[in-house]
Each structure stands twice: as C-alpha cells, then as structure tokens.
Design goal:
By secondary structure, the chain is of the alpha+beta class. The protein folds into three domains: 118 residues, Fusion Protein Consisting Of Minor Coat Protein, Glycine Rich Linker, Tola, And A His Tag, Chain: A, Domain 2 (2-Layer Sandwich); 51 residues, no CATH class; 72 residues, no CATH class. It contains six helices and eight strands; from the N terminus they run E-E-H-H-E-E-H-E-H-H-E-E-H-E. The strands form two sheets. A four-stranded mixed beta sheet has the order 1-8-6-7. It has a four-stranded antiparallel beta sheet with strand order 2-5-3-4, with helices on one face. Strand 3 and strand 4 form a beta hairpin. Helix 1 crosses helix 3.
Length: 261
C-alpha cells in the first residue's frame, strides 16, 4: 500500500496555502525529530512503520479534533510522539480568503525499518546466518556448531534445514525488496491537488532482474482519471536497483501495488 504524499496532505489545495502549511510542517517535524519515540530509537521496533495524524483546524486556528492512524510495527509511544508533534504547534488563524469553514491536514511520520536489527518471530530464522557454506548443508562439515545445536533442538535433518533456510531467505528478501519498492514509489508521490480519500488504484508490475519495469497493468483503474495519471506519472519517475538473486528467474518478478490518496 502506498500513500500518495510524502509529508502532508490537505483537505483543500484551492488557496495560497504554501506559507501557512510549510511553517506548520517545519515546526511539526522539528519537534518530532528532537523528541523521537524512545522505543523506536532504542531499536525495539526494528520493522518500523508509519503514523498518520489528521488534525481539523477551525478558521480561528484552533485544532478542534484529531485522529491518529498507523500501519506497520507501531507502538503507543510512537503514536503519541507523532500526535504531540502535530498538536503542540501554535497556529495562526486561517487566511480570510480560505474557502472552507475548516481545514483538515494529515501529517505522515515515517519510521524506516532497521534491517540490521530486525529479527523474525521464529527461532528458526537464526539458521539463515548459521551456515559456513551457503551452497550446501549436506554433511556436518558445512554447518557451524550453533547450526548443529538448532538442528538437534528442532529434530530436523540437514536436508530439511537446507529447505527451511532457503524458504526463510526468500521470505526475508521479498519483504526487504517490497519495502524498497514502496519507499521509492512514495518518494515521487507529490500531488498538486486534493483527491477523494475514498479513491483507490491497484496496479500490477513486472520487473526484470535489473530493476526495470517491463510491463504494468492497471487491475483496478479507479474512478478518477486525474488520480490515475498522477499515480502513473509518479511510477514513471521511480528507479529501482537490481532484483535480489533469490527473487530472480527467467520470468519477470510480479508485484501488486495498492495506491490510495
């Protein structure tokens, strides 16, 4: 799932919002970076995720309500840090020419995954890095002492261990590559107009071993042609690295994306 904006989105872009929202945005992220969530900073939430704080501002500049949503491995501390950064900033009244009675602003707080700290919930994943020879687990000479202990503990043969390690390595590679795709796509999504939050677009991509998109297919185009064009324009600017070796095959690698405003 990709959010079609990087830092914030507004309920109305039909006004001279730049100075108002840029000041608010700068103060929000300044506070957040200087008061980061302690558990994420300590590495206890290595998978990371995103927090979305939506604030409703009255014409007087008072925040009348707010809503906090998140995706990924997000704790209460991480949600609270994002909420606090958004609501502590004092706001001036909305400009007289602002066309609505209230303004809704949603800020996005990204917590990138810490791949060097990430661990699987299963003990078996440790076996991925326990082999001295990645190409063979046949025979005791190719296994480390810890690998032997785990094999003994789980009562599996070296052949079973080879299959398990291959499966785990594939899952880890796929998860890491998908996160790279999501971040690269998101970095190019900067809308210049508001879109209905209920819009949704699904697209299937075929990617070759060099990271080039060789085919794309809209499986759910959505109701808005403008939103569709904005998404496709963002995708055309995305650039990816080589496909991980474990994901390569003769056929291009397929991935399905869900994009929402």
């Amino acid at each position: 799932t990709i959010r079609f904006y990087q830092d914030y989105r507004l309920s109305n872009y039909d006004w001279n919002y730049q100075s108002y929202i840029e000041r608010w945005s700068q103060l929000v992220y300044y506070h957040w970076r200087n008061h980061p969530p302690s558990d994420y900073l300590a590495g206890s939430k290595p998978e990371g995720g995103e927090v979305f704080v939506q604030a409703t501002v009255e014409r007087s500049g008072i925040v009348s309500s707010y809503q906090v949503n998140s995706r990924g491995e997000i704790s209460d501390i991480m949600r609270e840090a994002a909420k606090e950064a958004t609501l502590l900033v004092p706001l001036p009244p909305l400009p007289e020419a602002f066309p609505d009675e209230e303004l809704k602003v949603e800020f996005r707080f990204d917590h990138p995954p810490m791949h060097h700290l990430a661990e699987s919930n299963t003990n078996q994943v440790k076996e991925v890095s326990l082999l001295q020879d990645n190409n063979s687990v046949e025979g005791n000479d190719s296994l480390s002492k810890m690998a032997k202990k785990l094999i003994k503990k789980h009562r599996i043969t070296s052949k079973m261990a080879k299959k398990l390690i291959k499966k785990l390595r594939l899952e880890l590679s796929r998860s890491s590559f998908h996160e790279e795709l999501r971040q690269e796509f998101s970095s190019h999504f900067r809308p210049h107009q508001r879109f209905d939050p209920s819009l949704e677009l699904k697209i299937e991509l075929s990617i070759d071993r060099f990271g080039k998109v060789v085919e794309q297919k809209l499986t759910q185009p959505g109701k808005s042609v403008k939103f569709q064009l904005a998404v496709l324009n963002g995708l055309s600017q995305a650039r990816f690295g080589d496909l991980p070796k474990s994901l390569r095959s003769e056929a291009p690698y397929s991935v399905r994306l869900r994009v929402i405003p």
